[in-house]
Design brief:
This protein is mainly beta and 161 residues long. Helix content is 8%, strand content 37%. It contains 2 helices and 9 strands; from the N terminus they run βββββββββαα. It has helices spanning 143-149, 153-158, and strands spanning 33-34, 43-52, 59-71, 81-88, 90-94, 97-101, 106-109, 115-119, 125-132. The strands form 2 sheets. It has a 6-stranded antiparallel sheet with strand order 1-2-3-9-4-7, with no helix packed on it. A 3-stranded antiparallel sheet has the order 6-5-8. The longest helix is centred in the last third of the chain and has 7 residues, at 143-149. The chain is globular and about 50 Å long. The structure holds manganese (II) ion. Manganese (II) ion binds at residues 75, 77, 81, 115, 138.
Length: 161
């Protein structure tokens, strides 16, 4: 049927419910993914894409959950991370500093800054991470960069693997 309404039907329903009955943090119609599809430079971490450039939005909002003692990859890139911790406990390396984090701390990772998230040994770490939809690929440290980072003993003890 022809229509004068030019607005396309939205792909995302107005409300998707939080699944309070699930053990982890899960939402209706939000698939659970592996954090990254390849590599051994991270451990015990899942990714859910909550909002993905919907209707021209320029940002993507993801929820990551790291199991106890797990970690994200040590990396840097031009795009920024805006993070809100939602559950558990852990630490984050941002640049040269390691910080304890817990709900509802905010973490800002500036452009081109080394970062790695780690869950506590006895608690998961769950957080929202806001990024631009169009963003550069993360870069892992070269052997030389890793050596330079590890000159700081606190960083040497923190980074994984
Ligand atoms: Mn990153």
């Amino acid at each position: 049927m022809p229509s004068s309404d030019q607005t396309a039907p939205p792909d995302t329903p107005p409300v998707r419910r939080f699944r309070a009955d699930e053990p982890g943090f899960r939402w209706e119609d939000v698939p659970l993914h592996a954090y990254k599809s390849d590599g051994t430079h991270f451990q015990a971490i899942t990714r859910q894409i909550l909002f993905d450039g919907d209707d021209g939005l320029l940002s993507q909002l993801r929820y990551f959950e790291i199991e106890p003692a797990g970690f994200s990859s040590l990396e840097r890139h031009q795009h920024v991370h805006a993070v809100l911790v939602l559950r558990g406990q852990g630490q984050v390396l941002v640049g040269e500093q390691i910080h304890d984090i817990a709900p509802f701390d905010l973490v800002h990772v500036p452009p081109n800054t080394w970062h790695q998230f780690r869950a506590a040994d006895d608690a998961a770490l769950g957080f929202l991470c806001l990024v631009d939809c169009e963003r550069d690929r993360p870069r892992r440290p070269t052997a030389e960069e890793r050596k330079r980072l590890a000159q700081n003993p606190a960083i040497a003890a923190f980074i994984r693997p």
